[in-house]
Amino acid sequence: MATTTATITINSTDLLTDELSLTSTATLTTAGTSTGVTQTSGLARKTTSAAAAAAIQANVLYRAGDYTTDKANKVYIKNTSTTAAEFFTVHIDQEEIGRLYAGDWMFMPWNATSGTKRVGTVTIAATWAAGDTWEFDGITMTAANSTVADIAAQIDALNYPNWITTYVATEATIIFTERYASSASYAALVTADGTLNTNGNGTADVSSAAVGSKSESDITIRPSVHTAMTYETLLIHE
Amino acid sequence: MATTTAAVTLTSDLLSDNMSVSASTTCMKAGTTADGLDGMEYGYLDLVTGDEYDLIGATPTASKASKLYLKNHSTDETYFIAITQNSQAIGKLYGGDWMFIPADFHDAAGDIAITANGGTNKICYALFHEGTTLVAS
Q1: Residue B16, helix vs strand vs coil
Q2: Which of B10, B36, B37 sits opposite A6 (nearest CB)?
Q3: Number of helices and strands in chain A (H, E)
Q4: What is the ipTM of this complex?
Q5: Is the sign of the CA dihedral A155, A157, A158, A160 positive or negative?
Q6: Domain spanning A5-114+216-237 has what CATH number?
Q7: How many Å apart are CA B99 and CA A28, to the nearest integer?
Q8: Structural domains of chain B, with CATH
Q9: Which residues of A touch B2 (CB under 8 A)?
Q10: pLDDT in tens, B57-95
């Protein structure tokens, strides 16, 4: 079993009339057990910058949809800046947690409460011909023949930037599931989201199974200045 | 000025090579290099299951560089405290876990609230801040 420990030491000789010295070590385990956590993002380091102050954008550190909800995940973030006035503002979803000023670090548990993803089923039907195309999510499938099951298999074999597919061999339907729950997920997937170009009367109708809901705890950080600022981060998760 | 340092060390053998991350910061007032945080609240208490409680009773100055340390001293690994801020779920501290976060209490709703689960949890907390406003009785 992997053993991961987190130790904090807080010291001050002059904050109180007596010396303050606090040390605590936690062995990081999976939720409700004594079994050590086994997964990590690894330590990452990134420098942010923007063309102007008005162009500053928040950076997504971790998307809740990538992790299991309600586990004993832990997040470490450090602002490596040495300019005292520079800070990163840390948010979970829309809630501002706090500001990490130059040199500051934080270590917190993270629920990773994700939303639900849109799901839709595409049904390949009627008369298709080799060379017919169907475009979705910026990706174009060109039919190799007129067999609907083969066309469905071709659609499944492509890589979509925002969707994953599920397909059962010999069937004419493909299930599309959104990679991330997001604020864009309020509209159901519909037939018009695809672009069909067929010489016959082939169809690629979409039926929606789930509208989806927005992710509720993505972690983002926003730099206070547009000039270069660097942060380091580490996620330990189940 | 008061000088308070907070250091963390993370070590693990869950990768193919050993991992060790260390950081230390001197807790300064917002945007300064010469003036350390000079206020502190500290508590150690039993937290019974059921209701949600605001952890910080007073209102530290908003949008500053306050730091909150919170530890669950429960020895039962199934016990945990759920932490929320302004109804936003942050995470759960299981028995033995701790956290250290910047807490800027951006408005009156930005209090950090905790709820015990599993049984009565023993918690310890320390808030380092640069000013506070007591709530009128």
Answers
A1: coil
A2: B10
A3: 1, 18
A4: 0.94
A5: positive
A6: 2.60.120.10
A7: 12
A8: 37-133 (2.60.120.10)
A9: 12, 14-15
A10: 777 777 789 999 999 999 999 999 999 998 899 999 999
